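Troubleshooting: if your tokenizer reports a length mismatch, compare against these two reference records.
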Amino acid sequence: MSLVHPIPSHLTRHNSVGKPRRPLGDPVSPLKEMTRFIPNPSSAPRTLKAKLSTFDPGAAQAAEDAGKLVFHCVGDVGGVNGTATQEAVAEGMEEQLKAAPADAAPRFLYILGDVVYYNGETRLYKTEFYEPYQYYPALIFAIPGNHDGDTRVLKNDPPDTEPSLLGFNSNFCAAMPQHVTPYRMSMTQPYAYWTMDAPFVTLIGLYSNVEGSLDARGRSEQQDYLIEQLQQADKNKKIIVTVHHPPYSLDSAHGGSPDILNAIDYAVQQSKRQPDAVLTGHVHNYQRFSRLVGRTKIPYIVAGAGGYANDERSMHKLQKGISTESLPYKTTVAGVKLEAFNCVDPGFLLVTASAGKLLFEYFTVPWGGGTPTRYDHLTA
């Protein structure tokens, strides 16, 4: 595969200086010449799929009876900067869950990566995960983000004393459920990347590693998994692909991941199946893109304002020149438009899956906590 933005051959990691700024409206970052990839330390199980009914038979049956499955979804929740924002978001979701009528109650929370900052240490799960969600009265699932798998030693940080993903695997992929705290047990998801077979929807979760790639250069294990899962997905259900690094982002810091974009597009080409939506995090704000595929608009959503950013200034901002007045904003990629964004408030997604239909609602919450307010919505 050729580089999207070729890097001059005379540049190396030692004499490169500066990062090229993306042109205004470009939602995809240049393809990196070198990416740091840390292999998953645990071997993949024989099956990477699990039914919602295996984890919570009552929730699955209630969704079937109601004719819809409702769940929460948000990324970048780790409260290393203090858990006040994370708790405000958690309380907002808890309020929704308790106030909803029985047939519309959210059945679980699905975290889009970066559960714990900065390097996914097991010791931080108590303060950055279990305590902020101690009052959330439903199961919590997750895919890992770059900070869950990173083992980099930052300046002035003590050296990591555990391998990549140990904390995530111990708390979300345990062989047997353990009472980690008195109020929540560890989860038994099959692997770091896995598929949830739920009523009305198939959730295909990917692990985009440290720098936004499914596999190490020259390998294709997770790419093959994605193709297989798209091929095998129930044709009567909607498909949502979840991954931490977004294919598209107009923020001024990260941009979209070309490796993830290419991987999803290649899997669609090979499987002849198109996901109905792609949900991501990594960027600490909310962005909703539409991508025109034939006559269908596919939503690509960034929902990464779940807790890490502890004030408005620490939210990731969009490229200068993009405003709400310019929406829908036509990006430099043909058929891709930015339809909505919020770089000011923390918030979360409420997803409703029913027969042949997906409803996405984005709710913001005040920084100090309070009642959630619906900010954006769409049907797919």
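Reference record two:
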Amino acid sequence: MKKILAVFAVIAMLTLLLAGCGGGEEAVQPEPQEESQHLKCVFDDSAFSFQLLRTMGEAVYDCSDIGECLTTAYQIEEGNIEDWYSEWYETAERVRGYAEESLAGGHEVSAREAYLRAMNYYRTAEFYLHGNPEDPRILETWGKSRDCFAQAAELFTPAIERVEIPYEETTLPGYLYKVDDSGEPRPTLIIQTGFDGTLEELYCNGAEAALRRGYNCLAFVGPGQGGVIREQGIPFRPDWENVVTPVVDYALTRSEIDPKRMALMGISLGGYLASRGTSGEHRLAALIANGGVYYPVAGIIDVLAASTELPEDPEEFLEYVRGNSEGFDQEMEEAMKESTALMWFMDNGMFTFDVDSPSDFILKYSEMTMEGYAERITCPTLVIDSESDDSFPGQPQELYDSLTCPKDFILFTAEEGAGEHCQMGAQLLSHQRIFDWLDKVFAQTD
């Protein structure tokens, strides 16, 4: 038990699972570090610290205010998820009140900014609730986050357009961000999140950065994400090519999107999803995997095998879980009581994959792989790694090495303040390098 706790403390130092600059055929890797260089924000609990950094760092796109974040964090007891929920919810309610006051007074810029902050604070409040999928606070709090963003979207010029993307027997929710109302076809970033992000948070994860550079942006969430899992009950699926192709089909119906200059970016576990999607969709001109992920479950297996008696070989490990599911579940359930990060990882995994046990989640999760698919990607691809990111150790390099398309590699370092998972806390630097790369790729696109 102690070994498993210690291992998962390493795996989930950054509670998002599922992050110098190099290029060409040789990827640049960080020098081995003697000890963790993780940024610490208020909390000793690594899960709480990273989630605070995530929310606070989004202030650069008006989605939080540092004083509001710190004041909220100071009221939260270490590792107490009920405290986490109630304090962030209270802050979100207060800031939404500011938005409504400003809107009633005709102060649209102030209202827009406050709605954006409230959106993010509600999202943060809801983050740890997934241990009980029937908890009514999930839909209520997430719904308020969604609604606050919808209010803010109407106060932009031009307004951010809510869209519904045809997908199998239903639709996927999205937003189309336009530089202007001219209808002129523009290079477009299609952006998606990963294991736990929301459609609305994508505004500060890349959509606004795209607009500032003259790109239109189409943001969407698919199975297992946002409202698709919360309202429609559709869980994650490994074959994301069957998700991306309908999104590209929709993009090509929009006159504002240049069909020759469409890029897809996936964030966190989205680094796998976007890569797998692009393997079967060749109308995209570029792919950005932030961070790169080849076989998501391998990160867990690598760290577990290093500190326990569990098998190191992935197939042997998964066979162990299949053959000892009850024992594995019992160990995980006990360990989850002692680790906020492990609790969240397992709870969110069971929630988003729609399964009832840790073993079922791990086995479903293991179906996600780029083996046999990475070589099918043909467009220029940017693979990103972050020096202090423990979520997928070695995975960016493995994805990069498996690619046969034109490719580049960017390593973000702790020294420059960008070493955390998906460069949280350093989004301006992250977006500078990502979009500078994309500018060059699109400049060469015929």
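Descriptive notes for reference record two:
- The longest helix spans residues 81-104.
- The chain has a mean pLDDT of 91.
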